[in-house]
Structure formats: C-alpha cells, structure tokens
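Subject: design request, 253 residues
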C-alpha cells in the first residue's frame, strides 16, 4: 500500500487529474495569449508573465516531491491577483462532488500556500478538460501542516502538529483496549484544529464494503467522541487505499 504523506501527498488520488487536449510535451514555449509553460516529469504548468521561471521551478519541484508528477501527461494552470494565487487543474468529472476528495484538495491548497506561495491565499479551481469550472476550493486558513509519523504494531499513524504525542498515545491505547486496532486498519491519519478532529482510516475494499466493519467504526467514533477527544465536532472517514472517503461519520455536541 502506498503511504499517504500529509506534508506533500495529502492522500489526493492524482489519477483523478487529467490533461487538456490542447497541450503538448514541449519543455517551454509561449502561445498567442502570452501564456508560458514549463514541463516537469510529464506535468505541464501553464503560467502568465506575472510569474518568473524561478517561481514556477519551485512549484514544479514541489509537485515532483508530492508525487503529483509520475511521467504521465497532466496539465495545471497558475495565475495570481492582488490578494490570492489560483491553481487550476482539470479533473475527471464527478470528483468535484466527492466530499473526501474536496477535503484533501482544501489541504493541498493550504500546503501550496505554505510551501510554494509564501503563505499567500490560494484557491484551487477544479475544471473539466475544456477548462470549464466544476468547483472552486478555498484553502484552510490557519491550519498547521507540519506532520509526525509513527508506527504502532504495523499500523502507520500520521498526525499534524496540532495533535500531541500524549493524545496519540491515549487514542492508540484506547483503541487497543477496545479491540478496534486489528489487521483491517492499514493506516490512520489524525488532524485537529481548535474545535474539530478528523480521523481517516485506510482499509481494503472488502472491509469498507463490509456492513459489520462499518457498524464497528461508527460505534468506535462515538466512543472516541464521548471519551477520548474533547471538541465540538469529530469526523471519521473510512477511506480506500487511494485516499477517497467511502463512508463518513460526523459526531457533534
């Protein structure tokens, strides 16, 4: 199973990203609209004269490190105004309606802001291959995107810097005591802000389709909300190994 790294990969299923039919594999060129483009491992970044090559190189290297680029042809577009940067990427239609995918795109926008665009506001425009907008996604402001990784009994845990080691230990011990950590759960991602906890559980297809397992996770989420975490909202997602949410449970005061 491919590990989902919070700092860069963010578990976004990049196979959802497609190329536009009007692009080619040239490393750098301009067109009649003064748009320029650079290519990084098959991914073309189209940009205006508002950017210099160094800025685009930083973005390209970020996308390489994020495993966004994999040699296949993809196309993205960047622009900027006085108050924000815009990152436009064509996706397969239907993904703009997937709540789990949108959650990850929000985090990706926040990571672009902190790692590439010097903390400036970033929005991501999801469009079809004709560049018609499907959905505009805003970054999550104020989120801490640093992350930690630990392995407990063969299960990878990743959590942001808003989650303390003590909280991770408490959650892990509680889940072990209740028998929730078994070989069905392959990976856990744990995010937190002041009022909200988000837990993602990565499991195999036969498990997220199993009604008994889903009932067990639903019960687990309620117990975590009541006895372990103290917040206004807890969200628990059962995800496939590509990072797409298959089932979501919400717990609120």
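Subject: RE: design request

Done. Sequence follows.
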């Amino acid at each position: 199973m491919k590990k989902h790294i919070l700092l860069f990969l963010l578990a976004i299923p990049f196979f959802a990203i497609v190329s536009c039919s009007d692009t080619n594999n040239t490393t750098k060129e301009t067109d009649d609209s003064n748009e320029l483009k650079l290519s990084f491992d098959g991914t073309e970044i189209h940009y205006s004269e508002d950017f210099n090559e160094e800025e685009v190189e930083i973005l390209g290297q970020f996308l390489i490190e994020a495993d966004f680029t994999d040699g296949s042809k993809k196309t993205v577009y960047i622009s900027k105004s006085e108050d924000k940067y815009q990152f436009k990427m064509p996706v397969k239609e239907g993904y703009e309606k997937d709540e789990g995918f949108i959650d990850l795109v929000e985090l990706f926008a926040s990571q672009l802001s902190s790692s590439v665009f010097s903390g400036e506001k970033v929005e991501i425009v999801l469009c079809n291959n004709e560049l018609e907008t499907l959905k505009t996604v805003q970054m999550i402001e104020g989120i801490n995107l640093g992350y930690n990784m630990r392995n407990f009994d063969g299960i990878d845990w990743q959590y942001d810097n808003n989650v303390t080691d003590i909280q991770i230990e408490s959650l892990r011990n509680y889940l072990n005591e209740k028998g929730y950590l078994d070989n069905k759960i392959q990976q856990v991602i744990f995010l937190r802000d002041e009022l909200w906890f988000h837990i993602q559980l990565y499991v195999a297809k036969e498990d997220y389709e199993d009604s008994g397992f889903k009932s067990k996770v639903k019960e687990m989420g309620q117990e975590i909300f009541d006895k372990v975490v103290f917040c206004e909202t807890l969200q628990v997602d059962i995800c496939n190994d590509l990072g797409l949410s298959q089932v979501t449970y919400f717990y609120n005061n």
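The longest helix spans residues 99-115.
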